[in-house]
Batch of 3 targets.
Target 1
Amino acid sequence: MRLFGWETTFGYGSSGSGPESLEPEGGADANMELTPERKEAISQFRERVAPLLPPDQRHDHALLQWLIARSFNVDKAEQMLKKSLEWRRELGVDTVLEWEAPEVLTKYYPVGMAGHDKTGCPVWVIPYGGCDMRGLLSSVKKADYIRYTIRVLEASRRDMQQQTQQLGWPVNQQCCIFDLDNFSLKHVTWKPAMDVILELVQLYEANYPEFLKCAYVINAPKVFTLAYALIKPFLHEVTLKKIKIFGQSGWKEVLRQDIEPGQLPQHWGGSRTDPDGNPKCPSQICLGGEVPKKYYLSLSKSNLSKLTENENLSSITLSKGGKKRLKYEVKKPGSHLRWEFRTEDFDIGFGVSRKLKKGEEEVLVPLQRVNSQLVTEEGYLVCTEPGTYVVTFDNEFSYMRSKKVLYSVSVVKPDNLTEE
C-alpha cells in the first residue's frame, strides 16, 4: 500500500489494500520516501515503545505519526509518546466516552460527524461561527469544556478503528470543516476564550500527532486573520500545510473532490438533509447558538460578580497593590497541586513556583493576570519533585482597587489519584 507517499504493509485482513489516494493532499511529508534510515527509525521506535501500546497501535502508520511529529528523531518521538500516555492516564482519556457531559455542552457545543471522505476518514463539521464561547465558559468549568473536546477526538478515534476493521486498511486521520459563518470579533477579543483555544491547540499537537488529514476553513471573514495569527505559532508546520482557508466561495467544489455528496449535509455542499428537510442536519451536527443564561454558573450556583462565602472555598482580600503567597508542602513525587479560584468584579494575577535552596524559586506557572471574575479558574500541576510549592495571588498591578478571592488549593498524593 502507498500511504503518505511511502510503500508499506499493514496486514489488516484479507480485503486488500486501500486506495492510492490515502496520502493527505498538500501535507509536508506527502512525497517523502521511506528511506532505509527511516525504516530503521521505525524499527528502533517500535522496539522501544511496543510494550507501552495496545496491539492496534504498533503498526507502521501509528508509529509514523509520532516520528513525523518529531522529524524522525527517535529519542524525541519516544519522549513525546510517553508524555502523551501519561497525559491520557492522568485525565482518564481512555474512559472519556463513558463520561456524562453537562447538558449545555451537548446542546450548544457546535460539532458533529457528518460522514466519511473517499478514503474512509471521519468528516467532522464544526460550525464555529455559531459558537457562544462566553456562554459556554460561563456555564461549565474550563476543564469540562476541554474534556468534552477530548471526548469528540476520542469518538473520532473509535470511528477510525471501526473503519479500519470494515475497510481492511488503516484509517488514522480525520477531516474537519470549520464553518466561520457569523464569525466576528467577539470570538477573538475575549481572553478566556482565546486562552482555552490555545490550550486545546497545544493539547492536540502534543497528543494527536498526524491525526489531522485536512482542515477546511470556510466562510472565513477578514477578522479571522486576527485569530489565526495568534494560533499559527502553536501549530506544527506539517499541520499548517493541511489547513485550507476559503472565503464565501470555492470551498464546495473542493469538498466534493474529497467527500461524496451523500456524506455531507446539503448546507455544506452535500446532498443529505434531515427528515424534515433541514439542509444543516441538526440531528447530526450541533449548530451551537446563544447559550440561555439559565445554564450560567453565576446564576445557577453563585453570583460571580458578588461573591458569597462557600464552605469549600477559602476567602482572602488583597489590598491595593498587595500580594498573597500560600505555601504547600509536597512530600511525594507525582502528587498533584490543584487549584480553583474566582474573584469579585476584577481580574487577579496568579502563579506557582517551587522553593529551592538559598532563597531561590523555580517558576512553574508564570505569574499572569487571569479573568477569574468571568470564569472560575481551575487547574493542576504534577509535582515531579518534593518540596515547598508557592501559590501566589498578585494585585500589585492595581493601585486603585482591592480584590476579593475565593479559592481552594490542595495537594493530592499519587496513591489517591488512582482512586478518582
Target 2
Amino acid sequence: MTAAHHPEILLELRGVHRTHGDGAAAVHALRGVDLTLRAGELVAVMGPSGSGKSTLLNLAGGLDAPTRGDVVVEGVALGSYSRTALAQVRRRRLGYVFQDLNLIPTLTAAENVALPLELDGLRARDAREEALRSLEEVGMQEVADRFPDDMSGGQQQRVAIARALVGPRRVLLADEPTGALDSETGEEVLTVLRRRIDAGAGGLLVTHEPRHAAWADRVVFLRDGLVVDSGDNGHTEPASAELGEVASA
C-alpha cells in the first residue's frame, strides 16, 4: 500500500540515492535508503561522520533532491511539486532545528517563531497568537519578547523547536539539536521535543549520543550511505555494539 492509504505516515524515503559529481569523481552520499516516519514517532539517525546523515536530513526536508528515488511527505512526492509549491510545503509541513539554531538576533522570540507564518501570508496578529501558543507548548512563553542574546542556550533551543513546529507543521527534522548544550539542558530540550512528538508530530533526530538516541522510538544506523541497522528502541540489543562503535566515531 502507498502512503496515501496510511494518513498516519508523515514522511517516507523510498529507495533514495544521492550522488555528487560524475564518473570516477562521483561521491555516493546515499545509496538506496528506505525510511518511514509516522505521527507520534521519533526516529534517531546515527552513524559516523560522512555516513550520509546530513544528506538524509536535507533530502527529507526538500532542501536537496535525490538523484534517484522518492521523498514523500504526507502522501505526495516532493519531486512532483514546482519550486514555488515546494517552498510552500517546507513552510507549512516541515520544521527544522539546526545545531546553530538560525534564530534571527534582531527579532524577539515571538517574532522568530511567527516569521514562517508571516512569510506564508498569515496576518501579523494571527501569526503572533500562533507563535505565543507554540512558545507556551515548549514552556517558553516568558521569553516571548526577549531577543536571542538575552536567552540561555537551552531557552534558544526551545524557541527553535517552537518555530520548527509552529502552525500546522508536523514533521520535525533536528540536526544535533543538543550538541552545543550541557547535558542537563540537553535532557530538558529532549523532554520538550519528545512531548511535541507524542502530541502527534513526527521527528527525525540526527545525533552522535546514544543517551539522546534513547529518547527515540527507533534508531537507524547509517554507514557509507547505507542503512546498516534499524530497530525499535525496546529491542536494540543487536545494535548495542554498533551504538558503542558509532559513539566513539
Target 3
Amino acid sequence: MTEPTTTDVARLIDHTLLKPEATRADVEALVAEAAELGTFSVCVSPSMLPLQVPDGLAVAVVAGFPSGKHLSSTKAAEAAAAVADGADEVDMVIDVGAALEGRYDAVQADVAAVRAAVPAPHVLKVIIESAALTDEAIVGVCRAAVAAGADFVKTSTGFHPAGGASEHAVRLMASTVGPGVGVKASGGVRTLEQARAMIAAGATRLGVSGSRALLGGGPAEGSY
C-alpha cells in the first residue's frame, strides 16, 4: 500500500472546532483554513449553523455531544435541525453507559432514531468513545451502529478523560464493520505520522483540530 501524501490525508480530515468558547469569528476562520488546506469538511457545534462554505467543503455537526446522555428524541431533533440548517453530516454520541452494560439493543435504537432524522444522502457517524470501552463492547456497539444504518463509526469525542483514538481500536472497529461502513479516528491525532498510522489501521476519515500543524503548516492546537 502506497503511503498517503499530505494531500491525501487532508482530504480525509474533518477540520474540527468544538470548544465551548468558540465564536462565530473562530468558525469563519476555521472554514477559511479548511478551504486553504483542502480538508474534506469542517466539524462544528450545531449552534454555529448555518455556515457559508465554498463548493467542495462539507459541513459536519455533532449531536448529543459530548456526553451522549441525551434522550434519543433529543438527539434526533438536534440532528434534524442541523440538517435543516445545511449540515451534510452528523456525528452523534452513543450512551456509553449503555454500551458498558452490554445493552447494545438500546444503542441500536438510539442510533436508529437519529438515522431516521438524518436520511441519506446525509451521512451519520456514530461516536462510541472507544477508549472507555472493552474490546467486546467496541464490537457490540459497532455491530449495533451498522444494524441501525450508520455510515461511519467514530472512535471518540476528543473530550473524554479515557483518551482518544488508538490504532488498536481503529483496527478492531474496521474489522467489525467491514468495508461498507467508514471508520473515523478522532481524539489526539496530532501528527502526520499518527494520521498515516490510523489510515493504515483502517481509518477512512480523521477528526483533527490542529490540521495545519498535522499537515506541516504551523504549531499544534487543540486535542480533538
